[in-house]
Amino acid sequence: MVREIAYDCDVLVIGGGIVGLSAAYAITRAAPGTRVTVLEKEPGPARHQTGRNSGVIHSGIYYRPGSLKAQFAARGAAEMVKFCAEYGIAHAVTGKLIVATERDELPRLHALVQRGRENGIPVRELGAPQIEEYEPEVRGLAAIHVATTGVCDYAAVARHLANASGALIRYGTKAAYIDRRPDLGVAVRTDDGTVVRARVLVNCAGLHCDEIARLTGDEPNMRIVPFRGEYYTLARPDLVRGLVYPVPDPAFPFLGVHLTRGIDGSVHVGPNAVPALAREGYDWRTVRPRELGATLTWPGSWQIARRHWRYGTGELHRSISKAAFTRAVRRLLPAITSDDLIPTPAGVRAQAVLRDGTLVDDFLIQEGPRTVHVLNAPSPAATASLPIGREVAQRALKSLATAA
Questions:
Q1: Cβ contact 345:231 at 8 Å
Q2: Helix, strand or coil, per DSSP, at residue 155
Q3: % residues pLDDT > 70 (the chain)
């Protein structure tokens, strides 16, 4: 006897950030008539990583050739510019400078030139005098100019994806319990006691994606370790014309303190990267003991601390000391003073960490019976959100067809 189930939707997406909404959008376009529901615990879309970043459309120059980040960022950047232009969303293709300020950074700068070429990204190498042609106040020994970098309003992109997806989006609704039956489907009980039944579940929960994966019964073999990125706004935005980055340390997935002129004309300075004391720990006062305990009991967290304590100490120092943060920025922009830096809201990066302490440096998507989990999608995920959404949609629809 075949058991009949009244499904509320075909695909249930948990998470209303830009990746979850892009996945919902891609599913309904690839398979019209597919019923999609999105659960988002906040009262609106893009309240965390999507709406709390510097708005950069990344070129894809940093990422390992052949990686998902390299493929999706370069493709996604072009698509994001086109998407914003088509739907009237604020954006600009500004280009950016990556600047070496110390001699020991020059080999890494040259390596980025090669990586850019391998990823099909046009770059222009600059000597010190040429830097001033782009950024008169910036100083460095050498730089590269990446013309395809830009900025946009990712929260507006997310809102458009939500409205255009055709999905039923339930804001203010948190997944509290998940019952996944490989032969039947997935039932999610929400925090208001209602139950949503779906054939396939897509997990785009960002800062909570590992917890959602475990609720389904899938072990992701990683944990999200939250890193807070603290920003300032520049009181004299005329000091910066576009986007200015330091040469990144290849040992870390963070890009260092940089300068970003946004679509509103303001200039963001930051972020640094310090451990957050909660998954949504946007300041030092926000502490959630259960979440902090989960971070501290994950072996990978201690491996990170053991290997990278010097780097972490520097980041903490810049978090606590505005003077130290100012000194870091003055390497690129000597004209600024501490008074030029005005605190602005922070963001939290959902960084996947393996048990051995490895910081996952690529997008990570895993599948289980009737589930697709997006387990590492920090920057440049907003840039790459349209191709990521299609990749997730393809996997979800394949699972849906198998389950039918």
A1: yes
A2: helix
A3: 98
CB 396 within 8 A of CB 19: no
Q: Supply the DSSP string of 356-381, one letter for each residue.
A: TS-B--S-EEEEETTEEEEEE--TTT
DSSP single-letter state for residue 169: E
From start to end of 55-194, where are the E strands? 56-57, 91-92, 96-100, 123-127, 142-146, 150-152, 168-171, 175-181, 185-190
**pLDDT tens sequence across 49-64:** 999 998 999 999 999 9
Condensed to tens digits (0 to 9), the pLDDT of residues 160-171 reads: 999 999 999 999
Taking each helix axis as running N to C, give the angle between helix 18-30 and helix 154-164, from 0 to 180 degrees, rounded to the nearest 10. Answer: 30
The H or E element containing residue 203 is: strand 195-203
Q: Which residue has the tokens 């609704």?
A: 173
pLDDT band at 3 (very low <50, low <70, confident <90, very high): low
Q: Under a CB-based contact definition with an 8 Å cutoff, are residues 265 and 223 in contact?
A: no
Question: 10 Å Cβ neighbour count for 92?
Answer: 16
Helix, strand or coil, per DSSP, at residue 99: strand
